[in-house]
Amino acid sequence: MNWDDVRMFLAVARSGQILAASKRIGVNHATLSRRVTALEESLKTRLLIRRTNGCDLTAEGEIFLNAAERMETEMLAAQSQIGRIDTAIAGTVRIGAPDGFGVSFLSSRLGRLTARYPELRIQLVPVPRSFSLSQREADIAITLERPEQGRLISSKLTDYTLGLYASKTYLADYGTPAAVEALKSHRRIGYVEDLIFTASLNFTAEVMRSWDAAFEISSATGQTEAVRSGAGIGILHNYIARQYPELVRILPDTVIRRAYWTTYHESARDLVRVRTVADFLQELVTAEHRIFL
């Protein structure tokens, strides 16, 4: 298998067109087409469905794309480490983030980064889970704790706070609790306990010994929507809850503090695209740090 053929396949897969890919990497489109065909022949499988208006990946092409991007990462890392070669800000960077931070903060702001670097492709995976950087499930992970094991590079992104919230309609119907003890007589919303993947998500233990939620949702954004609907009282991220005028902060002296960390594998240390994205995340949070505290 020829690495240049793989590189050309990546260009076509990312642009969706052979002509656009040829202009992007400076290769004649007929030559590019032949090289991709040669790659398919070497793999004995069809990677692209070629149409007059563009190209679509086959199922095998989707599988090979993931492998090709891992190959690209290793190749660029080797170039940087051996020859100290700085590479262009191009290619794919996958960000794994907690769903609250990913959906409510990052998703509306990462477009600025792709506008700044047109050759850069961002994949945001905002789900309530952890990511394996060593297995390349993500290039950059936003974590709730600083990892203590593995060949990882971490830096604190920001501290943030959470508080107790209910909707105006819920409080009108059931009253406002005047103390933490009074929460026992209210419907409570929380995480599905056996699906909590890190102790940092166990917010309820810092409020009362037995939260005993009537409605459990393994998603920060899902909990926010449930509280907005009047389903009960929940512990929400302040920077998210403040966006909704129908939500009311209750027992404001009850404050939970956490932090977000930016983490990536040390093998990606010399990849310009990964460093660029990590720096941009810090830039975003620094510019808007007040909303997190």
Could you characterize the architecture of this molecule?
By secondary structure, the chain is an alpha/beta fold. The chain has 3 domains: 81 residues, Orthogonal Bundle (Arc Repressor Mutant, subunit A), CATH 1.10.10.10; 102 residues, D-Maltodextrin-Binding Protein, domain 2 (3-Layer(aba) Sandwich); 98 residues, Periplasmic binding protein-like II (D-Maltodextrin-Binding Protein, domain 2), CATH 3.40.190. Helix content is 38%, strand content 23%. It contains 10 helices and 11 strands. Strands 3, 4, 5, 6, 7, 8, 9, 10 and 11 form a 9-stranded mixed sheet that branches. A two-stranded antiparallel ribbon has the order 1-2. α1 crosses α3. The protein is elongated and about 75 Å long. 32% of the residues are buried. The model has no long low-confidence stretch (mean pLDDT 86).
Taken from the alpha-carbon principal axes, the silhouette is: elongated
Q: What is the structural class?
A: alpha/beta
The CATH class of the largest domain turns out to be: Alpha Beta
Looking at this structure, what is the CATH superfamily of the largest domain?
Periplasmic binding protein-like II
